[in-house]
Amino acid sequence: MKNIIFYLLITTFTIGCKNKGIVYNDPIPKHDSLTIASKYVNEDRVINIWTPPNYSQTQDSLPVLYMPDGGTKEDFPHIANTLSKLIAANKIPPYILVGIENTQRGRDLCGPTRIEYDLSYIPNAGGANNFRDFIKNEVFVTIDKNYRTLDKKAIIGESLAGLFVVETFLLDNSMFDTYIAVDPSLWFNEAYLVKNFEALSKSNYNHQKKLWFAGSDAVDISKNTRALNNQLELSNKNLIWKYTDAPNEQHNTIFRATKEKAFIWALNN
To answer: DSSP E strands: which ranges in the chain?
Structure first.
């Protein structure tokens, strides 16, 4: 158990639950970068923005996909390249990608916890609400001011970022239209989000919200993603959702293995 959680807390590209030393040399696509001096997280934050080719060729406004772990040395390159491939193949509509580069990942992506075990790995946990306010009140405003955007937003995250996606879906559902959580660390805080999903979620989503999530072979993740799937199967909340159970994937392989099917299902109308 401890070894699994240790692997979850370090970057996906360096060590996974079973395979070590995986390094991806993804080409960094042409993109813009800007810095926001945030009053919500009390620091300067780097934001990376990728726009599809048709953005410069038309005057169309586009929906936006937001992503924690969005640095050029994090998940931004391979997600931007995947979007480009799928858009070119007409498998998804054009989206702008906004990546938020990490500074203190555990602080920003985790809510508060009093569980000693959690705090031994993430001693600065508890900043997720501030990070959400930063995205909602500063990142959204900056992107909408500088780019042609539609009022249609999606978010994707893996591992702790996936935990943040699920927590945002439950605590501030109006922020995004589509939520994609890959191998979310739902073990955090003794699986609080899973155990309290029914109480925290809305009674009726009126077919206006989409949730896609997936679980790998990591035991402390898969048991919770499956439990969440079971709850959704028994619920009648008019939520558009899909669960992908991927027991043949490890924590460090599932993002790349499932991202295309996630985008095709989640980003199409």
So the answer is: 32-38, 43-50, 62-67, 96-100, 149-158, 178-182, 210-215, 240-245
Q: With beta carbons less than 8 A apart as the criterion, state whether 252 and 218 touch.
A: no
Question: Sheet of 178-182: strands edge to edge?
Answer: 32-38, 43-50, 96-100, 62-67, 149-158, 178-182, 210-215, 240-245
- pLDDT tens sequence across 119-167: 999 999 999 999 999 999 999 999 999 999 999 999 999 999 999 999 9
Q: What tokens appear for 172 in the block?
A: 């501030």
The H helix count followed by the E strand count for the chain is: 12, 8
Tokens of 41: 């997280």
What is the spatial distance between Cα 152 and Cα 148, in angstroms, rounded to a whole number? 12
Residues whose CB falls within 8 Å of the CB of residue 152, separated by 6 or more in sequence, listed in order = 63, 64, 177
Give 241-264 pLDDT, tens digit per residue. Answer: 999 999 999 999 999 999 999 999
